[in-house]
Amino acid sequence: MSAEKNFTALGLELPPAPTPMGVYKPCLIDGKYLYVSGHGPLQKDRTLIIGRVGADLDIEAGKLAARQTGLTILATIKAQLGSLDKVKRVIKLLGMVNATPDYEKHPVVINGCSELFVTLWGEDNGKGVRSAVGMGSLPGNVAVEIEAIFELHY
User: Fold this and answer.
1) Which of 45, 57, 79, 148 is within CB 3.0–4.6 Å of 36 for a Cys-Cys bond?
2) 3-state class of 8 per DSSP?
3) Angle between helices 106-126 and 59-81 (to 10 degrees)
């Protein structure tokens, strides 16, 4: 099945595509690659999931914030390309977790986004290389920020 059909089958809804909060583009196409700027967990009502994992949020809430961040990235892709089916595969994710200094399970949190992408594009195309790191703070106190690189169908 296509990514669009998989998305529909999951019964998920995209939040609105976010507008840049600085001097940058939400995404940029270079040849067959789509580079997506750092996104946060924007919800349908345009509020963000905020807080530090390990203090304000537990691991499951952090994972849900990462999933919501993945949905926000998908909203930008759909706004830019018109269809998720134009994405061939995930190349790389950089996941940043707003966490307490002693928190160590950043990869588990970022799995919230990675698992969503695997569900949409399959095991081979939905899983790329990845880094998951902890941050002392993130803009607006968002729980998670993720940037991504995708390969496009050409």
Assistant:
1) 148
2) helix
3) 40
Three-state helix/strand/coil letters over 69-110: HHHHHHHHHHHHHCCHHHEEEEEEEEEEEEECCCCCCHHHHH
Helix (H) or strand (E) holding 146: strand 144-152
Q: What's the CA angle centered on 47, arms 95 and 63, to 5 degrees?
A: 35
The strand order across the sheet containing 87-98 reads 27-30, 33-39, 144-152, 87-98, 129-135
**Pairing state of beta strands 144-152 and 87-98?**
antiparallel
Pairwise CA distance, residues 40 & 96, whole Å: 10
What global pTM score does this model have?
0.98
Query: What pairing do the DSSP bridges indicate for beta strands 129-135 and 33-39?
Result: unpaired
At 129 the three-state DSSP class reads strand
CB atoms within 10 A of CB 58: 11
Tokens linked to 4: 């669009």
Q: What does the pLDDT look like over 7-66, one tens digit per residue?
A: 999 999 999 999 998 999 999 999 999 999 999 999 999 999 999 999 999 999 999 999
Name the phi and psi angles at 119, rounded to 5: -65, -35
